[in-house]
């Protein structure tokens, strides 16, 4: 059976290095695996979970499609920038709206720990940032914890493999070529 991979370009900008890396991953991986691709910049939805979990908020069509793709996928690849030590607001809104009770987790009885409904899936997070290398790990830590530990792992997805591409602002063509080669290699292996 061919591995099923969901690729999400998590940058709300329509043109970015994240989009470029997502393109490279999709093109390379599609030679070997089944791929579904989403671009946050093209998804039209209200990112605010208006009523929390107290009332059902109808999902926009792109969110319904994204939920179906999550259930379909064996492996989820998220390419996102780090802005202000976190993920972009629209990307956070995507997870708020999609990773809902009875879809990605649920509580049973008085157990304070959730039943994880997305077990059996793996993930890769590729993050870009402008911070200099000396501060990259420190600045990335909150975003990694939010996205991997408190979102993906909370719902049962295995601990993500992380690629941190730092100092985009001072990157030269050799740096970018190295990152592009790295992403293509990951894609060819379905990682």
Automatic annotation (TrEMBL):
GO molecular function (one): NAD(P)H dehydrogenase (quinone) activity
InterPro entries linked to this entry: Flavodoxin_fold, Flavoprotein-like_sf, NAD(P)H_dehydrogenase_qn
Record protein name field: Putative NADPH-quinone reductase (Modulator of drug activity B)
Flavodoxin-like fold domain ranges (all copies): 3-173
Top-level division of the source organism's lineage: Bacteria
Matches recorded under SUPFAM superfamilies: Flavoproteins (SSF52218)
Record field: transmembrane: none
Family: Belongs to the NAD(P)H dehydrogenase (quinone) family.
UniProt keywords, alphabetically: Oxidoreductase
Coiled-coil residue windows: none
Gene Ontology CC: cytosol
């Amino acid at each position: 059976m061919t591995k099923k991979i969901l690729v999400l370009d998590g940058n709300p900008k329509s043109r970015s290095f994240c989009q470029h890396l997502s393109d490279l991953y999709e093109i390379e991986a599609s030679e070997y695996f089944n791929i579904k691709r989403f671009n946050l910049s093209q998804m039209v939805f209200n990112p605010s979970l208006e009523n929390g979990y107290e009332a059902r908020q109808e999902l926009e069509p792109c969110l319904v499609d994204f939920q179906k793709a999550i259930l379909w996928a064996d492996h989820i690849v998220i390419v996102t920038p780090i802005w202000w030590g976190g993920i972009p607001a629209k990307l956070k809104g995507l997870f708020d709206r999609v990773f809902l009770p009875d879809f990605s987790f649920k509580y049973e009885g008085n157990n304070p720990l959730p039943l994880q409904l997305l077990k059996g899936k793996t993930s890769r997070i590729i993050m870009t940032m402008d911070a200099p290398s000396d501060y990259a790990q420190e600045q990335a830590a909150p975003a990694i914890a939010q996205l991997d530990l408190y979102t993906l792992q909370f719902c049962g997805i295995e601990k993500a493999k992380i690629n941190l591409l730092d100092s985009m602002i001072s990157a030269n063509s050799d740096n970018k070529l190295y990152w592009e080669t790295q992403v293509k290699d990951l894609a060819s292996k379905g990682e």
